Amino acid sequence: MPYVDIREVALRDGLQIEKPIPLAAKLELLAAVAATGVREVEATAFVSPSKVPSMADAAELAAQLHNYPDIEFSALVASPNGAKRAIAAGFRAIEYVVAADDAFSKANVGRTSAQATSQIRDIVAIAHESDVIVEVIVATAWDSPFEGPTPVQRVLDIAAAARDQGVDRFSIADTIGTTTPGRVTSLIAQLLPVIGDMPLGGHFHNTRGCGLASAFAAVGAGVTRLDSSVGGLGGCPFAPGATGNIATEELVYLLTDSGFEVDVDLRAAIAAAEVAKSVVGHDLPSALLRAGDRIRG
Fold this sequence. Notes:
The chain is of the alpha/beta class. 42% of the residues lie in helices and 16% in strands. It has helices at 10-14, 23-34, 58-62, 80-88, 102-109, 113-118, 120-129, 152-164, 181-195, 211-221, 248-257, 266-280, 287-291; strands at residues 5-8, 40-46, 72-77, 93-99, 133-139, 143-144, 148-149, 169-173, 200-203, 225-228.
């Protein structure tokens, strides 16, 4: 069967818009996520605690990850200094986000899109010196909450810069959950010749009900890696209304019932979503969390 790699992002993207929770609660969620069989987990972010206080314990969480040797953990960084901190904490994979529009980029990292793109070179040099994998993720790849539709050429230019600087992986993110399957396949068709052999990932939000459909279209168009968050936990604190990561259990249900192979166990993912709901203390958007899978009725 065709295989799709799922990266669990509940611990970083899922928690970044929540009030800070204790490290013990994060470790409880991590244990539940690890029990799903997932092979890749985005664990935290090395960013300013004043901007994202829920990630202030990044180094403390990193110190506990050795308990899960079968999982590749990654951390998001927003600058060369963040990359140094993540590598010093023991991460062997990092993600660097470049927004395709200036307004969101300034709100997110205080730099224009071009300025953020120019830092790819330094981040790759820092990472590769320590044999660390670098992934560039293009935020607002389809639409900006401030500037409207994103010109495709902006995404292609960032992709070309990433390729030229030796980035290991590339991903496109629907930061505010506005894209639809046709727009997804169109962008991917234009991206694939640019990125060459770099593995292509996708990060979708279900904010407007199209996240799962867009993720499925992306797989059909050539994406081999998808991000998701148990329970649909999370969103972006710098984009108004950008809630609703696609739920891991819903993605697993969709893919496996459609003939794809994934590493994540469906029932364990539903159980992890229950833990996520417990640690944040409120309901989560996942329909499957409420309804269960069809086998159980």
